[in-house]
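To close the chapter, one final illustration. This time we ask the reader to focus less on the individual chains and more on the assembly as a whole: which components sit near each other, and how the overall shape emerges from the parts.
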Amino acid sequence: MVNAKDVPENLEWSINVTDGTKQVVAVPELRLVNKVWLGSKSVVGGLILTVWRFLVKAWNLGVAEPKKVIHAVKVGLALTIVSLCYYIRSLYEGVGGNAMWAVMTVVVVFESSVGATLYKSINRVTATFLAGSLGLGVHWISYKAGEKFEPIIIGISVFFLASAATFSRFIPSVKSRFDYGALIFILTFSLVSVSGYRVDGISELAFQRLSTIFIGTSFCILISILFYPTWAGAELHRLIYRNLEKLADSLDGYVIEYFDYEAVAEDSNHTKAMKGYKYVLDSKATEDNLAKFARWEPAHGCFNFQHPWKQYLKIGASIRSSAYCIEALSGCMDSEIQAPGIGYLKKHVSNACKTMNKFSSDILRELAITLKTMTKSSQMGSLVREMNIAVQQLQISLRSIPNCLIAPTSEDTTDEPSRKTCITPLVEVIPLTTFVSLLIENAARINGIVDAVNELAGMVDMKHGNSNAKTTQ
Amino acid sequence: MVNAKDVPENLEWSINVTDGTKQVVAVPELRLVNKVWLGSKSVVGGLILTVWRFLVKAWNLGVAEPKKVIHAVKVGLALTIVSLCYYIRSLYEGVGGNAMWAVMTVVVVFESSVGATLYKSINRVTATFLAGSLGLGVHWISYKAGEKFEPIIIGISVFFLASAATFSRFIPSVKSRFDYGALIFILTFSLVSVSGYRVDGISELAFQRLSTIFIGTSFCILISILFYPTWAGAELHRLIYRNLEKLADSLDGYVIEYFDYEAVAEDSNHTKAMKGYKYVLDSKATEDNLAKFARWEPAHGCFNFQHPWKQYLKIGASIRSSAYCIEALSGCMDSEIQAPGIGYLKKHVSNACKTMNKFSSDILRELAITLKTMTKSSQMGSLVREMNIAVQQLQISLRSIPNCLIAPTSEDTTDEPSRKTCITPLVEVIPLTTFVSLLIENAARINGIVDAVNELAGMVDMKHGNSNAKTTQ
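The assembled structure is written out below.
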């Protein structure tokens, strides 16, 4: 077979037919077919590969977070159950053919957390009721005003109410609680008042829609609470104590990396743990969202209705404030200069630093356990005291540095060394002192986290625990 | 009149009637009426006060950000125009009574930025078309399978497609571009396939719905682009250069506060400018959202379609990295100790610090102007060079500190002072050196911002400017 590549652009192939004439064979066409075939093969191949990669990614996500698969199955289940309204004749006629609204409600209201589902359900039902009543009122007034004025009155009221409700969605207090409600208010009011112009029996229609929406939201709430519920509050709780653990790991990681670099140089787990603070830096939006939904949730687990979720945002903010400090600390890692005296100085403060930092990260882990188990820690007070003492010790050991600037040379290790006056210039000590002073600043910020968690403990009834965690001394 | 307060609980008032008997007067009832009156007065008063405060807040918001009022009016306008479908008989009958879908589309699709409106509109129309076609296909198959199997086939397909589409919304690549589309896909597919069981002429219905949705989205897109458009891209652009300006103000503020505290002690504007970096810390979620919508927008202003909005996120991240540094800097302000030698030392590095910082904040302001005008700065190269030279100068002036640790006493100001050896302990210099070394670290991070902006300049055609801003020397 001739390879398509080898055929020049305008070449014609001919064969001698039995009657002596020549007949042209349509080779260029064959070439085109070949090209199209190859092209479409690569397109289809690429498409299959893309789809395959997408499926692999989806599969990995599902394996990593089975909660998301469960949520998807729950939505499918809720929709299938609500479709029963269509299949069962008595149900379908009971809602006057408005079963569509139940399906629609399930699709838009069912969210991945119970809190979000409740927020949307309550907003939807309330806003539909309010806007429906108002719409009926406007419809009645415009009807009484006569056919000529009807569209004008309805038009003006739709314009003003829709504008006002849209604007109200920008006001922070409305936005955080009733954003979805305002949207549904505009939707229902427009539909009811405008439909009234064409549809007869509008009040029955409004009532039937309200009842189908009620059916839809009830299904959503029941299914989201009864089958493997995902509580926004519990998620927020978990996020906060995991962030505390990540911060403790980062802090430990940086101190080990700085003082005992050789021990962890090639350890990828260590590097990963060190970067944990970055999740903390970026978790504000998630925390805000979860807290917004958590307040709609009923009592669950060890959380009452109206658990002080706002305090979690305060704790989150104080955790982030410590994460900023660690971020600045990470900047010190690169700027280190290996000057002659530095090794000695580093050794001089190393123990005090490590001790202080051990208390800092122990406090963070103890706070994480306090939150995780909702049990007051009996060790917290002593840990904080010891951390503050360690900070003072560190400052004392820094205070004794001017003598150390006159570093002993290696050969003089006898009891009475003849010290050489090789003063290390201040500029070479700065990376070390900056690192240490950021650690001290971080200890102060950790005190802030302790205060925020204590405030939370004052708001809710925490159990008193005897020995929460591994002992720290 | 008797004051209600003065009447004991069980007291009865009586009067002598002419026939000699006594008659009880219903004073306790009067007291109750009084109580209810007072109570309801305070409730109504409280309600009026709350509503009044809410209105004042809304008014202030409207005055501060007229864009939000304009958006609200635009939504009102779009809804009123779309309602015309109901008022004009020929239009209403043209869409077979499905005008409701146009109203609904306008309410849910009209967002405050053009990009978000386009994102939702395109997602809605595409998803409705795809899901509608698929729904009709499933309806046809189940119809052919016979009345017995119809609900089963429809139920199973709704369950699996809804679950799959819901799960796909968690996959990052789908979530960032087609989240709304996946929701509408589930909605339309369920409605079309399930409705098919009861409604005749389902394909006409599907077509009519698609056309009303098309009408609704067209109105939204036209109105959002034609009347005072708010472009997500332009908003992102503005956010980024304003963050640069805020960062420059904060940086200047902290350096002035540290070295010339007296000059700004009582200046509230100064304190406000200093806190500007906090907006930068919290702006990640807003930036992500705006970038998500900006890529749907057509060319506008100086931005082409497919302007490299992702690069703005990189610039934003590098700006935040500098803001973290300033946050750590703010921690140094409190921990200052006034030791004898510190004043002298502070003076020693003050000029070098201020010079370096002047270049840092000038670079930030120059970057802001570069972005604002989309004009390459001719000074940027020299500014960066001079900042780096200033950093070296600062390090040299730090390097000369060991001599300065022997501070001259106040009485010895002659040409050849007999220096006293009052060595300042290192620990008292640390707050100062930490402050300085964070400033140096910040200069390195500002270099990162310059690189990110240069990358952007390489991606788009920026004009070459001669003299952008105020001269810096």
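Residues 4-64 of chain A form one domain. Chain A touches chain B through 85 residues (CB under 8 Å). With these observations in hand, you are ready for the problems at the end of the chapter.
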